[in-house]
C-alpha cells in the first residue's frame, strides 16, 4: 500500500466511517450497518488536496474537465480542477426548471472535450453512471471515472463494459466492510 493510499484509507476510516447498530437504507435501496460520509473525509482543505492528488495520480488519460453528479462530486471536482489546471462542471440531479434549464453547470461540455468523472461514495454506481449519461449527451468523451470510496463492485463492472478506466481510492476491502451489490452466484458443486 502506498503512503498516499494509506493516508486516504486512514482519512476515510477516521473522519467518514461509522458502524451503526441499526441498519439504514442506502441510495441504492440496500441496507447496511456501515455508514460512510465522503464529504466529512474531505471537509478540511489539506485532506481534500490529498484526495485530489490521488485522483489525478490514478488516471492514465489526460482530461480537459472534471466533474460528476452534485453534490458528491462537487468538492473533489473543484479540488482536482485546481490541482490539474483544468475546468470543472457539476451535473444536476434535475434541470433547474428556469433560466437555461441546464443539466450541467460550470464548464461547457461538447464534442472534443475529454472528461474525468468523480464521486465521493459509490455503492452501485447509479449517481456516477447518471453523470456519465448526461456528459455523453453533450458529445464530450469520458476518459475515466474515479471515486473516493467504492462499497461494491458494480460500478467497476459497468465502466469496464463501457471500456472506461474506473478506479476507487478506497474500497470495501480497505475498510474491512461488507461488499454491497448484487448477490454473487453460489459456487458450483460437482
Number of domain units: 1
Q: Approximately how much beta-strand content do the residues carry?
A: 25-35%
Q: Could you tell me the mean pLDDT?
A: 92
Strand/helix succession: HEEHHEHEEEHEHEH
Give the strand line-up of the largest sheet.
Answer: 5-4-3-6-7-8
Inertia-based shape: globular
Low-pLDDT runs of 5+ residues are 183-190
Total DSSP E strands? 8
Helical percent range? 25-40%
Number of helices: 7
Give the N-terminus to C-terminus distance in angstroms. 38 Å
CATH class wording: Alpha Beta
CATH topology: Rossmann fold
| Rg (CA only) | 17 Å
Largest sheet: 6 strands, mixed
Question: What would you call the structural class?
Answer: alpha/beta
CATH architecture designation: 3-Layer(aba) Sandwich
Summarize the structure.
This protein has 190 residues and is α/β, with parallel strands linked by helices. It has helices at 3-15, 38-41, 45-58, 74-84, 126-136, 154-162, 172-175; strands spanning 17-25, 31-36, 65-69, 87-91, 104-106, 114-122, 141-150, 165-171.
Q: What does this molecule look like?
A:
Helix content is 35%, strand content 28%. It has 7 helices and 8 strands. The strands form 2 sheets. Strands 5-4-3-6-7-8 form a 6-stranded mixed sheet, sandwiched between helices. It has a two-stranded antiparallel sheet with strand order 1-2. The N and C termini lie far apart (38 Å).
Amino acid at each position: 500500500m502506498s503512503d498516499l493510499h494509506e493516508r486516504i484509507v486512514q482519512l476515510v476510516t477516521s473522519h467518514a466511517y461509522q458502524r451503526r447498530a441499526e441498519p439504514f437504507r442506502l441510495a441504492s435501496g440496500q441496507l447496511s450497518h456501515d455508514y460512510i460520509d465522503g464529504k466529512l473525509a474531505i471537509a478540511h482543505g489539506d485532506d481534500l488536496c490529498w484526495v485530489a492528488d490521488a485522483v489525478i495520480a490514478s488516471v492514465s488519460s489526460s482530461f480537459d474537465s472534471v466533474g460528476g453528479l452534485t453534490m458528491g462530486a462537487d468538492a473533489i471536482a473543484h479540488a482536482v480542477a485546481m490541482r490539474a489546471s483544468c475546468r470543472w462542471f457539476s451535473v444536476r440531479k434535475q434541470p433547474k426548471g428556469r433560466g437555461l434549464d441546464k443539466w450541467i453547470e460550470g464548464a461547457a461540455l461538447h464534442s472534443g472535450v475529454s472528461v474525468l468523472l468523480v464521486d465521493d461514495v459509490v455503492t452501485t454506481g447509479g449517481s456516477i453512471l447518471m453523470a456519465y449519461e448526461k456528459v455523453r449527451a453533450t458529445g464530450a468523451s469520458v476518459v475515466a471515472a474515479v471515486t473516493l470510496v467504492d462499497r461494491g463492485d458494480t460500478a467497476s463492472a459497468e465502466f469496464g463494459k463501457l471500456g472506461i478506466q474506473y478506479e476507487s481510492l478506497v474500497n470495501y476491502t480497505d475498510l474491512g466492510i461488507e461488499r454491497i451489490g448484487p448477490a454473487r452466484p453460489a459456487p458450483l458443486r460437482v
